[in-house]
Write a structure and sequence with these properties.
Layout: E1 4-7, H1 24-28, E2 46-53, E3 56-64, E4 70-78, E5 87-93, H2 104-112, E6 116-120, H3 137-157, E7 162-172, H4 174-185, E8 191-195, H5 201-206, H6 212-215, H7 219-229, E9 245-251, H8 259-268, E10 274-278, E11 288-291, E12 308-313, E13 316-323, E14 326-329
Parallel strand pairs: 1-11, 5-6, 5-7, 7-8, 8-9, 9-10
Antiparallel strand pairs: 2-3, 3-4, 4-6, 12-13, 13-14
Helix pairs in contact: 3-4
Length: about 350
């Protein structure tokens, strides 16, 4: 089966921070308070050791959600840590449908290279039924997710082994879209890595090829859902992010997130965002190979040594590590030869994702 490259450019930690293009008036008119919560509330963190794999402890976690119930997910911690050395912290968000377990292969690889990672289950993953109900419940769950993601950063900041100056968010597909919204209210991460993201659920289900679900609803139910979701559509918020850089990745032949929708989100992010697009279909979706550079987090300025980049030669994506002498290529495939240092690939099968 054909493998597809997933390039999670965590070296975006060193990219110059972007400047929002949305005016202060536009941002002030958004209901940002909808996503606020009391950070003084007890986290009530519960942690259990699930297993150890490739030098990484994988813990099942839960904590009290300010919006009710308990947020659940996984915590990835390197087994070998130098005493007194603080590590970068990342929050990882999966796609739809999905759950934290579906991004454990990426999260584990990042942790293996020296970072502490929290991967959360979205609220729809904590219940039975379809991820999207086309009721106001979808709005409530999206708000809860944004609040819970902020609490995940509270969790990281509360750890003595996390460097609070090197925090990041990584999301793919639905998780990338939610990252665009999170960036407007969560300013502690230095960078947001958004992989094949679009403007949000309204954008997704309004696009040609995806309208069938909305069109099947009664006009009353459709308008009620749109009225609940439009005010919290991520594409309206991403331009209000301050102090963080963005790294975007998109695929020109992605069947679920079109380049038109991906580019629209990228443009709203403002100046200073780094964008990589590839010609592979379903880039970053199915069982792929993750090229991770967690050991370089925050150590290099944008474009300097230690920054991983993706180059496309025709339809073949190639990954390289920028060194003073030029681009040192990683193997485009590792089946027949060892991967170069710090080019870590995974071929763990992933369930099909709707977005």
């Amino acid at each position: 089966m054909r493998a597809v490259l997933l390039a999670v450019s965590l070296a975006a930690f060193g990219i110059a921070r972007g400047t929002a293009q949305v005016g202060a008036h536009s941002c002030s008119s958004l209901p940002l308070a909808t996503f606020s919560y009391d950070r003084a509330l007890p986290l009530d963190l519960r942690v259990s050791v699930a297993k150890t794999q490739d030098g990484v402890e994988i813990h099942a976690i839960s904590f009290a959600s300010p919006r009710g119930g308990r947020a659940t997910g996984l915590l990835f911690v390197p087994q070998k840590r130098v005493p007194g050395v603080r590590l970068p912290g990342l929050v990882m968000q999966h796609g739809m449908p999905g759950k934290a377990e579906y991004v454990s292969w990426v999260s584990g690889n990042i942790a293996h290279h020296g970072a502490i990672v929290v991967a959360l289950d979205a609220p729809f993953a904590r219940r039975a039924g379809d991820p999207v109900t086309f009721t106001p419940q979808d709005s409530a769950e999206q708000v809860q997710l944004i609040v819970d993601l902020q609490r995940a950063f509270d969790l990281l900041i509360g750890r003595a082994d996390v460097d609070v100056g090197r925090l990041a968010f990584v999301g793919r597909s639905y998780g990338a879209a939610m990252g665009g919204l999170l960036a407007a209210v969560e300013h502690r991460p230095r960078t947001y890595v958004l992989i094949v993201g679009d403007g949000g659920l309204v954008t997704h289900y309004s696009a040609a090829g995806h309208r069938a679900a909305l069109d099947s609803l009664s006009s009353e139910r459709r308008e009620r859902w749109l009225a609940a979701m439009r005010p919290i559509e991520p594409i309206r918020y991403i331009g209000c992010a301050t102090g963080a850089s963005f790294f975007f990745q998109a695929a020109r032949r992605d069947e679920l997130v079109t380049m038109t929708d991906a580019v629209a989100l990228q443009r709203k992010a403002g100046k200073g965002a780094l964008v990589r697009s590839g010609s592979q279909p379903r880039l970053a979706r199915h069982h792929g190979r993750a090229r991770l550079a967690a050991s370089h987090l925050g150590n290099s300025p944008g474009g300097g040594p230690g920054r991983y980049v993706v180059r496309h030669e025709g339809a073949v994506p190639r990954v390289g590590l920028v060194e003073p002498g030029g681009l040192v290529p990683c193997a485009s495939a590792c089946e027949s030869s060892p991967c170069p240092p710090l080019c870590v690939f995974s071929s763990s099968p992933q369930p099909p994702l709707r977005r």
